[in-house]
């Protein structure tokens, strides 16, 4: 009977440790997605057209490719992100001025109403 309890306790500790590890890894991976988009493809209803990563890595390409951070992808289009690379640690507290603007009303800090 004593060995059965000992096994149950060690199993509980193992499962608790796995849960903590999963939570820590999820918290660390809060960096927004990075996608290569065609800067010249913007459409009001869709956003930017997602293109192959080679368009952002190579110098001789026919597409005006640029890295686009964050946003929501719908099919082969993405919108709601930013071309500004977020700073490290912008996902956890820190400064309120992150590299990714998530939209909404208002102009942010220092804007005047009207």
Helical run tally: 2
Q: Which overall shape is indicated by the principal axes computed on the Cα atoms? A: elongated
Using the CA coordinates, give the radius of gyration. Answer: 22 Å
Strands side by side in the biggest sheet: 1-2-4-3
Q: Could you say which structural class the secondary elements and strand pairing correspond to? A: alpha+beta
Element order, helices and strands?
HEEHEE
Sheet bearing the most strands, described? 4 strands, antiparallel, barrel
Mean pLDDT, rounded to whole units? 74
**Cα separation of the termini:** 74 Å
Uncertain ranges = 92-98
Strand content: 25-35%
Total strands: 4
What level of helicity do the residues show?
25-40%
What does the secondary structure layout of this molecule look like, with pairings?
Elements: H1 2-28, E1 34-43, E2 47-50, H2 54-57, E3 65-74, E4 77-82
Q: Please, could you describe this protein's structure?
A:
The chain has helices spanning 2-28, 54-57, and strands spanning 34-43, 47-50, 65-74, 77-82. A hairpin with a 3-residue loop joins strand 1 and strand 2. The N and C termini lie far apart (74 Å). Strands 1-2-4-3 form a four-stranded antiparallel β-barrel. 27% of the residues lie in helices and 26% in strands. It contains two helices and four strands; from the N terminus they run αββαββ. With 114 residues, the protein is of the alpha+beta class. The chain is elongated and about 70 Å long. Residues 92-98 have low confidence and may be disordered. The longest helix has 27 residues, at 2-28.
